[in-house]
Specification:
This protein has 430 residues and is α/β, with parallel strands linked by helices. The chain has 2 domains: 238 residues, 3-Layer(aba) Sandwich (Rossmann fold); 156 residues, NAD(P)-binding Rossmann-like Domain (Rossmann fold, 3-Layer(aba) Sandwich), CATH 3.40.50. Helices cover 44% and strands 18% of the residues. It has 17 helices and 17 strands. It is globular. The termini are far apart. About 1% of the residues have low confidence.
Length: 430
């Protein structure tokens, strides 16, 4: 049952675990903000210019300290923001409480919420009839198009944060069922090259270590998928001393992984030797029953893609005759045939959020800067946009990179007049 508290500006609806956690959460939000200089600069401008004045924004994102700073920025720009979780296990309960208590932002998120609560929270978040959607996995867009079609007439556009969500949205656009334009924040260079690679790389390894307290060096880490997230995880695992194996379906990515110094092989071979398995493909059942059955005793399996379907968990359950929670976030399955123990982390949900805190704030600074500026772009340009998926405009991407460098105290070179002329001409040769 959603609750509400009285605020100076009115009543704020919410459904959080414990509102008394608000002060604790506020300190964490402030700690994150200290390393988010780009979003800070955007917030200052938003407060002054009010580009989102009167715009109703429904944000379905991981409710973390970094997301809190995005929500605060949107509100500073004049937006009416309502926030719900994009994953049942990613919510930081104290942060959710802080957003309600200290920022007056209606928030609907409880860590560990069941499926029914998850979708009830989405309903609560869209109750104000959004103009703009912000998704991490396209759940709000999907819900509006399937369950709440009557609300579509209000929506001018949306933004999407993840590879998985973008895949879903492009499929909708190709089938001509997408009813409003969406900015693919995930495709921005300042998002996927940094958030997906460096953010996912560090936070995934952090989630594995926090959950298991196992030594990474000297172990075999199998990374399933070599997109930007896979690249980041493989890089960080190697840096921690692991023997990294990559599995892929794309020959180019397989070749790249090999050239980057990793072993490449099919999953049926990797299953026999892996100590840790991490899926980051955005696809379904990339680790299946036959792979679980082949794993050695003590194997640890997790997922860092958006949906837990990357792992065939029902198949693992079927193979086991015993299961028990051995640590917080660690469920151990004993296989009937071999007696081998296979441990699943964070219920197969995003391990970097289920058993850790998600990406460091300094990298989310750029991703959420794209979200904020993407929303502003939609409000300014929605009348001329078609009902399809758009990239983040290059000018926004470069501006975020410039602001990030400036925030880090780094300067770079600029082209001379001679260099500009040379690059623009075809007459000048050797």
């Amino acid at each position: 049952m959603s609750m509400s508290i009285s605020e100076k500006e009115g009543v704020v609806d919410y459904d959080v675990k414990d509102i008394k956690l608000a002060d604790q959460g506020q300190l964490k939000v402030e700690w994150a903000e200290a390393t988010m200089p780009v979003l800070r600069l955007i917030r200052k401008r938003f407060k002054r210019e009010q580009p989102l004045k009167g715009v109703r924004v429904t944000a379905c994102l991981h409710v973390t300290t970094e997301t809190a700073n995005l929500a605060i920025t949107l509100k500073a720009g004049g937006a009416d923001v309502r926030l719900c979780a994009s994953n049942p296990l990613s919510t930081q309960d104290d942060v959710a409480a802080a957003l309600v208590q200290h920022e007056g932002i209606p928030t609907f998120a409880i860590k560990g919420e069941d499926n029914a609560t998850y979708y009830r929270h989405i309903e609560s978040a869209i109750a104000h009839r959004p103009h703009v959607t912000m998704d991490d996995g396209a759940d709000v867009v999907s819900h509006l198009h399937s369950k709440r079609k009557e609300l579509l007439k209000n929506v001018i556009g949306g933004t999407e944060e993840t590879t998985t969500g973008v895949i879903r949205l492009r499929s909708m656009a190709e089938k001509k069922v997408l009813k409003f334009p969406v900015i693919s924040v995930n495709d921005a260079d300042t998002k996927h090259m940094f958030d997906n690679r460096y953010g996912t790389g560090q936070s995934t390894m952090d989630g594995i270590v926090r959950a298991t307290n196992r030594l990474i060096c000297g172990s075999v880490v199998v990374v399933v998928g070599y997109g930007w997230c896979g690249r980041g995880i493989a890089m960080r695992a190697k840096g921690m001393g692991a023997d990294v194996v990559v599995t892929e379906i794309d020959p180019l990515k397989g070749l790249e992984a090999l050239m980057d110094g990793f072993r490449v092989m099919p999953m049926e071979q990797a299953a026999l030797i892996g100590d840790f398995f991490v899926t980051v493909t955005g696809n379904i059942h990339v680790i299946r029953g036959e792979h679980f059955a082949a794993m050695k005793d003590g194997a640890i399996v997790c997922n860092s893609g958006h949906f837990n379907v990357e792992l065939d968990i029902p198949a693992l359950e079927e193979l086991a005759n015993k299961r028990r929670v051995v640590r917080t976030g660690v469920e151990q399955f004993t296989l009937k045939k071999t007696g081998h123990r296979v441990s699943l982390l964070g219920e197969g949900r995003l391990v970097n959020l289920a058993t850790a805190e998600g990406h460091p704030s300094s990298v989310m600074d750029m991703s959420f800067a794209n979200q904020a500026l993407g929303a502003e772009y939609l409000v300014k340009n929605y009348k001329i946009l078609e009902k399809k998926v758009y990239p983040v405009p290059a000018v926004i991407d470069k501006e975020i990179a410039r602001l990030k460098l400036a925030g880090m105290g780094v300067t770079i070179d600029t082209l001379t007049k001679e260099q500009k002329k040379y690059l623009a001409s075809w007459e000048m040769g050797t």
